[in-house]
Structure formats: structure tokens, C-alpha cells
Amino acid sequence: MMKKHIKYIMPFFAFLLLLGCTEEDNTVDKVFQDTVYGAILRTTETISASYNAFDPTSIFSIMLEEQDEEMGDLLESVDVYISFEDNQGDAVDNSTSETLLVNIPASEFTTGDNGLPVISFERSLAEAASAAGLSESDYSGGDRFIYRMVLNLTDGRSYTNTDYGGTVSSSSFFRSPLIYYVGVNCTPLTPVPGTYNVDLQDSYGDGWNGASISVTIDGTTEDYTLDSGSAGSFSVTVPEDTEELSFVFNSGDWDSEITFQVYAPNGDLASEQGPSPGVGEIPLSICPD
Which of 131, 139, 144, 205 is most buried (CB neighbours < 10 A)? Predict the structure, then answer.
């Protein structure tokens, strides 16, 4: 007798389930009916993240990939703005306000390996200085050029750095900051010996979440990080006659929380990076006293 009840009850519940799935006014549709999808401009590769004051031909160079809900078909153009920040602390402030550098139309993008629009953006120090109205004597180590991008879509929407939260702007996958702080450094031809002090910060207070700084001295590498908390520091002593010295930032899960400063043996600030430090070798600016 029980089997007969089950025989008739099961098709009834199957009918109710089918009715619920096909009903036009179901819960899932209500949740997603007003969803609006945006777009991002991913930094897929940072080729060169700083300028050398001693070399006007030094470049800032990155690779970009545009993503939208139409696999790139919504891309109209990218506006690139440039400004300059004078950090010398003397009586003359050569800082400049933002000005439009270039409009990059969608036609200049090519199709990348993911089937999405890609482009290489590159500007030399000489080009950046000219665009900002500066001469070679107007900038030095510690100053920086700021590139801000605006992603324009064919439906009239636009996105810039202030439109994204930390997950989109700096997570290891998205990395779509739409703003790039390109420091000017004084790169010595040979490593400067002495003790380098490095201060580390995390704005959220939970450490660097997998990020680290690798220091290599003549082929020997040591890794340093902030395991927990909001601040820490470490020191590195570079011997006389050192032939190779590099500081490299390795990305973690929440780079938007990370800042750090590297101080040269003479006590001057050699590099200040973050939030969202550039991945790769950290430029050291050690200008003559």
C-alpha cells in the first residue's frame, strides 16, 4: 500500500518542481533582473614601472586588457591623463595639474590570447616631461608622474580609478587600478654600499597576505614580509664591492592595503611604493648628496 502512495506522490512533487522552475516570476529572475555589468582595464603585465632621472629615454610600460560583458565589443576608447607631483620639499613647487595626454580609440587595440582587446601603453621620461610642460631641471629623484585612465564604452558609460573598490583595482586577478604612479629615481650605475632600512605598512592591519620583498645581493636572495599587524621593518647591509643589488616586490592577495618605504644608507628616502605597489623590481632613487 505504501508503495502505491509513493507512486502517485512522486510525480506530483515533480510537477510542482517543474512549475516553480518555469514560472516567469521566479526568485532567481528577480535577483538578477536589475543587475548591471561593468567593464575593467586589466594590467596584465608591468614591463617598466619607473623613470631614471639620469636617462630621459627610460620608459614606463604596461600591457592592458579590456573586459566587458560583450567580450570587448563595448570598448570605445581610453582617455589617458597625466600630472606631475614635485616632492623635493624646496621653495619651488613644479607640480602640474592633470591634462589630457592621449585618447586611444578601440581601433588601436588588438585581439589578445583571451579573445579580448589588448594594447601596450608606453611613454618615455622625455615624453612625459614634455606633456607636463617640464624641463630636465624641473624633476629629480622622489618626484612622480601620475597617469590616470578613463575607460569609455559605446553605451555612454565611463569608468576611472574612483569607480572601483579594492577587489577590482588591485586583486591579483583583476588589477585594474586605472591610475599609475610612476616614480622618478636616480639609479646608480653600481650598488651603493651600506645599510638599507625598509618600513612596511598594511592599512587593514592583518599583514601582507602573501606579498613580500625579495632582496638579492650578488646572487643570494632573502625574502621579507609583514606576517601580521599594521607595521614592521627590516634592514639589509650591502657590503663594499657588491656587484648586484635588487629589491623586488612580490604580489599578494590584497596589494591595495600595502605601502612601504626604502631608505638609502645616507638616510634619504630611496623608494616609496603603494598602495598597490608595482610588481617586480623596486626602483631605488639614490641621488647625490
Answer: 139
Neighbours of 196 (CB within 10 A): 22
Q: By residue range, what is the domain housing residue 133?
A: 39-185
CATH number of the domain bearing residue 95? 2.60.40.1940
Q: Check whether residue 272 and residue 210 sit in a common domain.
A: yes
Mind listing the pLDDT tens digit for each residue in 186-237? 887 789 999 999 999 999 999 999 999 999 999 999 999 999 999 999 999 9
DSSP string, the chain: -HHHHHHHHHHHHHHHHHHHHH-TT-HHHHHHTT----EEEEEEEEEE-EEETTBTT-EEEEEEEEEETTTTTTEEEEEEEEEEE----SS----EEEEEEEEEEGGG-EE-TTSSEEEEEEEEHHHHHHHTT--GGG--TT-EEEEEEEEEETTS-EE-GGG--HHHHHSTTT---SEEEEEEE---SSPPPEEEEEEEEETTSB--TT-EEEEEETTEEEEE---SBSEEEEEEEEPTT---EEEEEE--S-GGGEEEEEE-TTSSEEEEE-SSPPSEEPP------
Domain co-membership, 103 together with 170: yes
Q: In CATH, what number is assigned to the domain containing residue 249?
A: 2.60.40
> Tell me: the pLDDT tens digits for 69-115?
999 999 999 999 999 999 988 899 999 999 999 999 999 999 999 99
Q: Which of 47, 65, 164 is nearest to 115 (CA)?
A: 65
